[in-house]
## 1
Amino acid sequence: MFEALSDSFKSAINKIRFADDEKALKKALDTLKKSLLKADVHHKVVRDLVKTVELETKKRGIGKESFLLALKNALTDTLTAPGNQGFVFASKPPTVALMCGLQGSGKTTTTVKLANFLKQKKKKVLVAAADLQRLAAVEQLRQLCEQNEIDLFYEEGAKDPVEVAKKALERAKEGLYDVLLVDTAGRLAIDEELMSELKAVKAAIHPHEVFYVADSLTGQDAVRTAATFHEAMEITGVILTKYDGDSKGGVALGIAKQLHIPLRFIGTGEKIPDLEQFLPDRIVSRLMGEGDLLTLAEKTADVIDEKKARKFTSKIKKGQFNFNDFLEQLESMKKLGSMKSLLGMIPGMSGMASKIEDLDLENSKEIKHIKAMISSMTPKERENPALLNNSRKRRIAMGAGLSQTEVNRFLKQFQNAAKMAKKFSGKKGLKDLERLMAQQNKMHIPR
């Protein structure tokens, strides 16, 4: 999702050739300006950013290093707006967040994504179904909440969203919930009826946060509609959806600078775990091709149990990794969200992330075949892969509806993966891993 901007920045930086070359700086600034405009960044934001980079680079002395630092500082400043970052909890629970936006922006799905994000942080979350306008909106929310084990408050046949919101708040207080997320009705366009309804809901429950959910694919329209909502509702933050599908990515640079409203979260994929906090310094690090190991560490810490992780590492070192462990790790990975997004957080890997098709751990044909094979094994075979002789492989192939060749190929891949994991689990392996990372880092923007 950051590849277009990231490539543009690399191109601009590579225009700097000599420590005191004014022509090279002008060429780099022109490249930067064109790239930002092409990425759908507002022309005033582009003008200010380019001017800031030019002045700071000259002040430090023209060169790649000073240009890189000036660009990083300017980007961080552009993406930073007054207000909260991420999700901030009220001093007294429940923290109430009102979700608003136009129809089709992904508001309902984003509400569940945010609830899931908070649930991973060990918070007790209640979602309220106050979108009573769109047909099947409540049913969609009910199904999503049920699939992701999130508590939902809704009333059959309810007509008044204000009453639903008030009752949901009472339930949240009685149930000692940490957070209440209220999903409200959207419209195909902004109108008086929509705004009156939202204002009434807001006045009834006094939310701590008013999040505007915007579709990043609409570009500058997302900024304009956010401005209209802000004028009427005093929104406290923006959540950008479908950011993984926006190859330009420039709208993120416009939200904070043009509206002075913080961008709080971005949707990085279609799956429920694909929601990330928008923290300017970390996003800039990814834009510059330097990865974001802090966010990666937080995501993994949220879904991976520390005791299980130690036990798992111990088994790998002893060469005891089996099919039950494989399935368990697969389930953990599903909770992490988009593989492309995760790769983009690893220093030097953003280029690779942009070239691969995302791995769907739920619907991938390959994953389904693997699960079918493991399901066709006996408990002893899952625990001890060494038991799998030819007759057992034939039985597994028949049980999974696959050929023995396919079973053999998977088993070979599994054995290779187990050997590689064992190799990298020791001290020598860590050095090998560091060497691999150093090779990847050659893809970085020169410092």
## 2
Amino acid sequence: MQIDNIEITFLKIDDYEDVKSAMIEVYASMEYSYWNEAHIKKLIRKFPEGQVAIKIDGDLAGCAL
């Protein structure tokens, strides 16, 4: 697999569905495995610089909230 671009950026609400999918996969054994969109919006609004996304070739690979 070739990686052409790794990007560290601030999370945007447009990333929500990818974040949700990742949380569901990673925390599959938890009943409430993902944060809802309103929670993510609030984090971005209150502290946008603290919500970090890592993207590989444009696809979300991880995040820090």
## 3
Amino acid sequence: MSVSSPCEICATADVEAACDRCGKLVCSRHYDEELGLCIECAADVGEDDRENIPNSEDMPDGVDTYQF
């Protein structure tokens, strides 16, 4: 995804992705592609909880964000 706005974490780089958990628009440096989370949400999620993060294929239609 390419959006012409600054990253919501560093405010300098262009947005490359949106966090699946909080919805922040972030640059590639502040996005964990494997988890689909921004670095802030990735830090909040413990190692044991990471396997419980749903991927986009597991989400029902019309739902794009889950609250943990």
